[in-house]
Amino acid sequence: VREGGARSVMHSYTDTDGVPAAADESLLTGLLRDTWGFDGTVVADYFGIAFLKVLHGVAGDFADAAGAALKAGVDVELPTVKTFGAPLAEAVADGRVPEALIDRALRRVLGQKAMLGLLDPDWSPVPPALDGADLDDPEALRGRVDLDRPENRELAREIAEKAVVLLTNDGTLPLAAPRRIALVGPNATEGTAVLGCYSFPQHVGVQHPDVPVGIDLPTLRETLAAEFPDAEITVARGTGIDDGDLSGIGEAVDAAGEADLVIAVLGDRAGLFGRGTSGEGCDAESLALPGAQQHLLDALLDSGTPVVTVLLAGRPYALGRAVAESAAIVQSFFPGVAGTQAIAGVLSGRVNPSGRLPVSVPRGPGSQPTTYLGARLAQLSEVSNIDPTPAFGFGHGLTYTSFAWSDLAVDTPEAGTDGEFTLALTVRNTGERSGADVVQLYLHDPVASVVQPVQRLVGYARVELEPGESRRLRVTVPADVASFTGRDGHRIVEPGDLELRLAASSTDARLTATVTLTGPERRVDHTRRFHAVFTQEA
Fold first, then answer.
1. What number of CA atoms fall less than 13 Å from residue 510's CA on the CB side?
2. Closest to 212 measured CA to CA, from 192, 227, 240
3. pLDDT given for residue 369 in this prediction
4. What keywords tag this UniProt record (predicted)?
5. Three-state SS sequence of 176-239
6. Per-residue CA distances from 299 to 169, 269, 321, 324 (Å)
7. 129 and 145 in contact (C-beta within 8 Å)?
8. For labeling, which of 123, 197, 453, 532 is most exposed (least CB within 10 Å)?
9. Residue 369: is the preceding peptide bond cis (ω within 30°)?
């Protein structure tokens, strides 16, 4: 809200200490508006106001739900007017809901519409591309709006290429000139495998299978054929995403046996409320690959042909023995419309991977907690027989070049609880090709009055370097980033020693600076500085 300048905020479905967010006046008015100074609109998550009655059980009827939400500070009901319609009108007429609450919400909504120009006399909801069209004739509208403009596609390409994460590589990648490729798996020939559940084709389009998608979604089969035009590519599905079908695994293993390389393309089908294996309302009891995909992967590993495992997924999955036995693992989290080109580029080496994991990848399907933000009791210890250490930690990712970090200098090893630290390091590309490294800064607080995560990310910088090139990075670390919620419920900065870990991932610290906060304990609020700042020098 503060740094991004959001003009609308949506309440969540959750309840805190038994109070649902949609009915929490201390949250939506006291904190958001009175403390943070937000003056935009608050909108309901879909059906969230009705949920005050049907799910949370804190309202006796829909009129009570509407009144509670308005009083809390919700201005707009979405997606319908189930509670803000007739139930609210009757409640106002009966005196159960003050008209002043209606006026307050209307003033905010109308003010925002005026700010956006929606109340201007010349404003029209019809975009210029549809001027003069018959809006009641879908066929007349189709094709008049370009959903896949070149500048959009270029941005999608850049995002996808920077997002693909190379998890492991025994030297098989990048592929030089593969002769025979067995392309196996349920996502190998599925164009929509790059899309998440809120993409239009997966959200709405699946309900209208006869309507064209409207955008180009090349399959990995197609992009690999373009990337390796001289290769012989044999396709075998093996199994479905979640059907558990084993009948195609024999064919897949036969294809692997006749190939020089297997590319196993596994993962998820995005959807909503049970229509997919990943997406809203598609929860997982286990982090094992859906259906029979692990069975397929293990069979391919047994074939004796090197296996490159490619994931097109919405969540991190435990991959079993493939973590150690795959020739390489390429992780992609629904990379968007240019995703398969980006993956093909990583496989060929046309793209030097630089993505880093935004989550940890678990070692086992029941590993909990998987977040890197666990406290000490959440780590491997003698008080539990379970080892939660991830297969690949938060922030992990490999490239096709190498980097060396050196010359750590701590300019200010001591600062007040209202001050800042400054440090610097040099990053050099020691490999033979250009690439990008991601320098991550983690904070470790050895002793605090409240249990803390062992470490937490407080800043990072992407550094792009040519072979042999080096760059000096300077980092300013405000004391505010060491703050946490104290025992009295207020956020504080405590004096004491800290470790600032410059790391390639949450499991790979390269350089560590020990610094000290001095002075009195200090209370901070929403105006605090949120993160470290990196600057790069030639």
1. 19
2. 192
3. 60
4. Hydrolase
5. CCCCEEEEECCCCCCHHHHCCCCCHHHHCHHHCCCCCCCCCCCCHHHHHHHHCCCCEEEEECCC
6. 20, 22, 11, 15
7. yes
8. 123
9. yes
Rg (CA), the chain: 27
Among 349, 184, 348, 175, which residue's Cα sits nearest to residue 265?
A: 184
**492: CB partners within 8 A, 6+ apart:** 483, 484, 485, 486, 521, 522, 523, 524
**In whole angstroms, what is the distance from residue 267 CA to residue 240 CA?**
10
Give the DSSP letter string of 96-143.
Answer: SS-HHHHHHHHHHHHHHHHHHTTTSTT--SS-GGGTT--TT-HHHHTT
**424-468 tens-digit pLDDT:** 999 999 999 999 999 999 999 999 999 999 999 999 999 999 999
Give the three-state DSSP class for 159: helix
Q: Which residues of 79-115 are buried (b: 16+ CB within 10 A; e: fewer)?
A: eeebbbeebbeebbeeeebeeebbebbeebeeebeee
166 backbone dihedrals φ, ψ, rounded to 5°: -90, 110
Q: What pairing do the DSSP bridges indicate for beta strands 491-493 and 484-485?
A: antiparallel
Measured CA to CA, the distance from residue 478 to residue 6 in angstroms comes to 24
Q: For the chain, how many residues are written?
A: 538
CA distances from 409 to 6, 25, 424, 437 (A): 38, 48, 5, 20
Asked if 347 contacts 263 with a C-beta cutoff of 8 angstroms, the reply is yes
Q: How far is 189 from 218, CA to CA, in rounded Å? A: 9
Class of residue 482 by CB neighbours under 10 A (exposed 0-12, middle 13-18, buried 19+):
buried
Residue 450 half-sphere exposure toward CB, CA atoms < 13 A: 13
What is the C-alpha to C-alpha distance for residues 504 and 507, in angstroms, rounded to an integer?
8
Q: Which two tokens stand for residue 509?
A: 């610290």
Assess contact for 395 and 457: CB atoms under 8 A.
Answer: yes
Other beta carbons less than 10 A from residue 76's beta carbon: 17
Residue 407 — φ and ψ, nearest 5°? Answer: 55, 50
Q: What is the pLDDT averaged over residues 195-222?
A: 92
Q: What is the pTM of this model?
A: 0.95
C-alpha closest to that of 50 among 81, 73, 27: 81
**SS percent in the chain: helix, strand, coil, step 5:** 25, 25, 50
Among candidate residues 459, 446, 455, the one with its CA nearest the CA of residue 507: 455
Q: Which of 326, 321, 328, 335 is nearest to 365 (CA)?
A: 321
Q: What are the strands, taking DSSP E only, across 355-495?
A: 403-410, 414-416, 420-429, 435-444, 456-465, 470-478, 484-485, 491-493
**In 303-355, where does DSSP find H-type helix?**
322-325, 339-348
pLDDT value at 247 more than 70: yes
Q: Which two tokens stand for residue 300?
A: 């391919």
- What residue type is 298 in one-letter code? D
16 pLDDT above the threshold of 70: yes
Token couple for 291? 């259906």
